[in-house]
Amino acid sequence: MERLCLPLAGEVSVRWRRNGRARRVSLRIDLRAGAVAVTLPPRAGREAGLALLREHDGWVAARLAALPAAIGFAEGALVPVEGVPHRIRHVPDGRRGVWIEADEIRVSGDPCFLGRRVADYLRREARTRLLGRVQSAVRGSGAPAPRRLAIKDTSSRWGSCSSDGTVMLSWRLLMAPPAVQDYVVAHELAHLRHLDHGTAFWRLVEQLTPHRAHAEAWLKRFGPELLRTG
């Protein structure tokens, strides 16, 4: 990560990435890091990336200014779990590690490790709950079953499906309402049968979930906040 100063955007963090398959220099906003990601093709130098940054200075400034505030896993922070806000509360004398009670994420032990323990707990919860949704979709609607389920922390994609039958889901979906989780699960399971986004694919998605329109609108509106949490 590098700090650069642009006339309109001011001081910004820039992440440089070289991609052997890229055909041109490109920019995107890394929501999680609150930074600009610059992708360079094999023969492009940093000068080309800097030129593109300067050319789109106003766009960078507007996009960074529109980012939701970052929310860390700290005492008193509000973090959604399946769409319901939960306040992080440190319980020094507790003997249960991390647990959810009365719309709170309660954390015992040394406060120095609170953030890490909350993050670990939410990732474990995501694996358990999202696996349950995958299994329910397969049993209840006849969706294709994945060979493997991977739970990861991605920078932009909520899910993906590989040709070997592996389905990947972002652990951050744990923070989204159940209907949104169901849609993303259905979307990726449908890709096990149709790897494109053709008519047959969308027809299968509609068969697997009634929540497509609501979930897509919700993720467009609130997805950036989930990526800025933690």
Automatic annotation (TrEMBL):
All copies of domain YgjP-like metallopeptidase, residue ranges: 27-221
Top-level division of the source organism's lineage: Bacteria
UniProt cross-references to Pfam families, sorted A to Z: YgjP-like
InterPro entries: UTP_pyrophosphatase-like, YgjP-like_metallopeptidase
Protein name: M48 family metallopeptidase
Highest classification ranks of the organism: Bacteria, Pseudomonadati, Pseudomonadota, Alphaproteobacteria, Acetobacterales
